[in-house]
Amino acid sequence: MPTTKPNPKFAEELSKLNKKLNFMSVINSSANGKSLFSVKDNLCVKGFESRAGSKILSGYIPPFNATAVQRMLDSGYEFVGKTVMDEFGFGSFGTNTDIVAKNPFDETRVAGGSSSGAAVATAVIKNHVAIAESTGGSISNPASFCGVVGFTPTYGTISRYGLIDYANSLDKVGVMGRRAADIRAAFDRIKGADNYDSTCSDSKISSTPTKKLMIIEQLMKGIDSKVLSSFDLLLSKMQGMGYKVEHASLDIIDKAIPAYYIISMAEASTNLAKYDGYKYGEQGKDFTKKYNDFFCDARSSFGIEAKRRIVLGTFVRSASVKDKYYIKALKFRTALTSKLSSILKDSFLISPTMPTVAPKIDEAAGLSLIKAYSMDSLTIPPNLSGLPHISFPCGYANGMPIGAQLISSHFNDYALLDFVESWEKSFKYEFKYNL
Amino acid sequence: MEDSDFDRLLKVCRLRLGAQERKRMEADITEIIGYFNTIDNAKVDDLEPSYHPTKISGKLREDKVRPFENPDQLLKGTKTHRFYVVGPDL
Predict the structure, then answer these.
(1) Which residues in chain A are closer than 8 Å to B50, comparing Cβ atoms?
(2) Domain tally for chain B?
(3) Is residue B65 part of a domain?
(4) Residue B10 and residue A196: Cβ atoms within 8 Å?
(5) Which end of chain B has the least Cβ crowding within 10 Å, N or C?
């Protein structure tokens, strides 16, 4: 647990920095800087507004804690605030919401997504871990852009109870920190079976090491040259530490992005169906309206990306095309998981985390939808297959951090933390702020 | 996608869009469905679908009857009439 002496001015200093970088939607004013944890806005914290970055949940104050939150509190961590995110997790840049976090290394750049605020909080607060969540890369991506360590465990390792769902078969609660040891301490406290989540596993988490690093050739296309230089340097250092680097070809991996978006949008559209302005979501007041009109009015609070995903998700689940899209994507997941698991029997998979450094906020806004979705090309495969993965800083280019991503087999999560702890002995991470 | 199909889809989604938003959305949906079609040539038809990426027990907790602690709190955010919750017209 990261600890230090209490700082009575901490909350004040945090609020001041938050005005500059927009990374928290709610700050716990009694926090004093000792053993802190922040919580992504899609996880419920009793008594604090939790709206998953969406206007439709404005004013929702949960009467309960998510299991991960309760376990952190029971372990003595202090809750510091809710971190901002793309609406319901729908984004790669943290820009699909009303509060857009800024990158602490360069305020004109995005912080990544969807756990944008969690990554910024980790980059600016020194005795802190962030409880975040990933569906298709929402931990690795902002961790890479903001220069922190982001750990996404095997699917089902940490309870999803109290998580405002995006896509149930893909959502994974995870942890960000400044050091792998801080993440390990938090992970040990929040993992494990939970009576309130039937998909949560009590499988033993292993730490089986390997000295073989595998690179999938198809994933290395379209990577920015500065990112590639840092990654190559990392590989050289790893070889110096006794690791063997090998390459593999996996043709099917280029279908991972459409398969992921088909499954995630299908599940998102069912999860978002409940926001009717009556039982869930911002309350409508005019009960003289017919139910469908009332329902439609309430749902006008969704942002454009949420509406897009509802429409697409509903389409791919339609009876006439369900086999062509949704079932095919689920079968593709079977194939991909089998192929990746086969490679991971005796090796780690390694790649850069993101194809570029964090883009400028206006550059991200100008990307086409397909281009924006494709930014997750390196993070989607492990997320689609529920494999544990970790992003860690491996270099800097023009003052911006570059991340590498390591993937292991199901439930070999500790091996990833061991690897990064070892890396941290020879590589010093840079931070611009130290609250 | 035909206009009538798109209208039906919006109705099922309970989404009402303005003219500009509808135009943009229709173009986006067409572009993305085109992208989704690239999964067509994946040779996976003989495989079973994975509804989850790992095996899950799906074990449910045992039912336990317990009194609801604070029914007034439950109804606090709703409009009520004679112990009934008032909702929109069906």
Answers:
(1) 330-331, 333-334, 337
(2) 1
(3) no
(4) no
(5) C
